[in-house]
Amino acid sequence: MSKEKKLTAQEELRRDYGPTKWILISISAVFLFVLLILPLITVIVNSFKKGIAFYSKAVSDPYAIKAIWLTLEATLWAVLINTVFGLFAAWAVTKFRFHGKKILTTLIDIPVTVSPIIAGLIFILIFGRQSPVFPFLKAHGIQVVFAVPGIILATVFVTFPFVSRELIPVLESQGTDEEEAAALMGAKWHTIFTKITFPHIKWAFLYGLVLCTARAMGEFGAVSVLSGHLRGKTNTLPLHIEILFNEFQYVPAFAVSSILVVLAVIILVLRSLLEKLGKKEMEKNR
């Protein structure tokens, strides 16, 4: 069968107007509406239930502002740390041979498999009052549990697989031939990385950053355990929303939730844009 006939058969299959196609589309549409669109609409409607003035007051509350800045701070640190770790880990796993490679790749996946609440409890055991290192931390004025460092630590832990897991498949498919050829010609490691390696992984790298950012902003479990729920000090946006909801302040809770919704939409747009740009570049390189 020629290439043209294969393409024609594929096009006909995709243009199938039978009942199976519309059943699958309907199920997907209903699923997305119930689990995604309807909750978003509910958040927006309830955010402005008492008017724009009340909404502005809720999102400009000092505790809300503090929660926003703490969320952004924890997210920034998580992205920076995981960028360095993700690049180094992915490069080490795919470009070098060493004993324990499988163990390293398994350890990278631990935050995905371990409950964030359990992770928070583990960090309390490591850095809390009952920990052997607590006297040292106290003597040097370092507070991790129920403080901002604990929030950052928890956020870093739950997000560190995202960058490396996006890079590893791309680097594996790229191989090592180009880097080895450049090394034989005398190129230094930083030249090899910037001129050969990074151009192949830049879209996967940016995609990993977007996923890491989204996960960091929405983290609740580990942060909840380590924060101590100190209002105005260790509460991120998700924790602040929980407090408002528990106090039966439903409209302010939805108003603050809308901030996370807006950020999520922005991240979704960035993700779609990166995917589109990446596909265009792949098509040009073919």
Detailed description of the structure:
The chain has helices at 3-14, 19-47, 52-59, 62-95, 101-108, 110-113, 116-127, 134-139, 148-159, 161-174, 177-184, 189-218, 221-227, 237-246, 250-285. With 286 residues, the chain is mainly α. The model has no long low-confidence stretch (mean pLDDT 86). It is globular and about 65 Å long.
| First-to-last CA distance | 23 Å
Q: Tell how many strands the DSSP assignment holds.
A: 0
Q: What is the C-alpha radius of gyration, as a whole number of Å? A: 24 Å
Low-confidence spans: none
* Sequence of secondary-structure elements: HHHHHHHHHHHHHHH
Helix content: over 70%
Quick one: overall form?
A: globular
- Main beta sheet strand tally, sense and closure: none
How do you describe this structure in short?
This protein is an all-alpha fold and 286 residues long. It has 15 helices and no strands.
